[in-house]
Amino acid sequence: MIDGIPVTGMVLTIIHLASFLRADALATALDSALVQGLTRADRVLDGVDALGRQGRRGTALLVELLGERMDGRRPSANRFERRLGALLVRSGLAKPVHQFEIELDGRSDARPDLAYPDLRIAIEADSHRGHAGRTSWEHDLERRTALAAAGWLVLHFSWRDLVGRPQFVVGSVARTVEFRKSAP
Question: Which of 21, 78, 95, 100 is the most exposed place for a label (fewest CB within 10 A)?
C-alpha cells in the first residue's frame, strides 16, 4: 500500500505488463526496471516460475526477453538501440552485442550501443539529446579517439538514418563487417 492505494511489486508489475504489451514496449519497460536497479532479470524469471507459465499470456515473450538479459551484460534501456539492433538482425546480419564493455588504456572504458567484438566494430545510435553540450561532445571525441587507437571502427547512425534510410544503415554495417572479415 502506498498512500492507501494497493500496488504491486516490480516483479509482478512486469509479469502483468507482459500480458498486454507488445514486444518492443515490454522490452522497454523491462530494460528500464533493470537499468534503474528496481529488480533483476533472475528475480523476474523466478516470479514467472512461481506464478506458473502455463496459460499465462505473455510469459513466453517475457522469458525470451529475460534470457537475452541474463548473460551478464547491462540491458539496453534505449529504444533507438534496440530498433537498430533488430534492423541489423532482420536484414540477415549477426546479432550485435548490446553495451559491450571495452577497456581502454587501462583506466577508462567504453560501452558502444552495439558491437561486433570479434571484428572490433562499434555502432553508436547517436541522438542529439544524448550528445548535446560541449562537455558531452568533448567526451565523445576523446572516447572515439581512444576506440580508434585500440583498433575499433566506430559507425554512427542517427534516428533519421534508422527510420528514413534503413538501407544505408544496413549497407554500411554489412560493408564494414565484410571489410573486417577480409582484412589481414
Answer: 95
| CA separation for the pair 155, 176 (Å, rounded) | 9
Tell me how crowded residue 180 is: count the other CB atoms within 10 A of its CB.
Answer: 14
> Looking at the structure, do residues 58 and 91 belong to the same domain, yes or no?
no
Question: Burial of 153 by CB count in 10 Å (0-12 exposed, 13-18 middle, 19+ buried)?
Answer: middle
Task: Report DSSP state, residue 40.
Answer: -
> Residue 129: pLDDT above 60?
no
% of the chain at pLDDT higher than 70: 87
E strand map for 14-88: none
Q: Is 111 found in the same domain as 57?
A: no
Q: Enter the pTM of the model.
A: 0.60
Q: Give the closest residue to 88 by CA, choosing from 62, 63, 115.
A: 115
